[in-house]
From TrEMBL:
Name used for this protein in its record: Ankyrin
Annotated keywords: ANK repeat, Repeat
InterPro entries listed in its UniProt record: Ank_Repeat/CDKN_Inhibitor, Ankyrin_rpt, Ankyrin_rpt-contain_sf
Recorded coiled-coil stretches: none
Lineage start: Bacteria, Pseudomonadati, Pseudomonadota, Alphaproteobacteria, Rhodobacterales
Amino acid sequence: MRVAPPGRIAAARQVMRRLSAILFAFFLGLSGPLPGQAQTMHETALFTAAADGDASAIRTLLARGAPVDLRDAKGRTPLLVATHADRVEAARALIEAGADVNARDAIHDSPYLYAGARGHLEILELSLAHGADLASTNRFGGTALIPAAERGHVETVRRLIEAGVDVDHVNRLGWTALLEAIILSDGGPRQQQIVDLLIAGGADVNLPDGEGVSPLAHARRMGFDAIAARLVAAGAR
């Protein structure tokens, strides 16, 4: 008896798995959710649709009973998965269906906090319009404004200040948004704009870090003359 080569057997198995998935999806579409496994398939599909940005599939899956704030093994909701990938329309579909913009995963990220930290401005706007907790903090004890300032997301910083995030909030490292905009940056044009925004937003230019070092001292130490000049003009010592 002839035995098929291992590669051919593996390929045949892959084809069979694909056919099984197609047939399952077909019969699921005809008959609606099946007990147990069908719900699991819906839930898995919801995360896939969120990651792929498939808003139409999201609406269909939610209509069939998939929980909007379902959690994966990392504690992420479909909305957080969509936010990670900056899938705006997927995020919109989930938020409009009632997804919690403040639901945190195992490392304390929420869709709102992650959108702010990564500069995903459209999703941030959606979260602000649907109950974002401006006082919520990430695993470092920082508001969304602090990592946004550090990473140079100018428009995100502007929007968070306008929304009312505390510009002088201090995280567990002893740093404010102003300090992070200096200490963890290259001092370039974007960081200079962010320093301007923070100053205009009422940031305390003399609030030191946990070791008593002022923003001005940090700017001078790092050779950020343009930022130092802005701080001095705002009354920094």
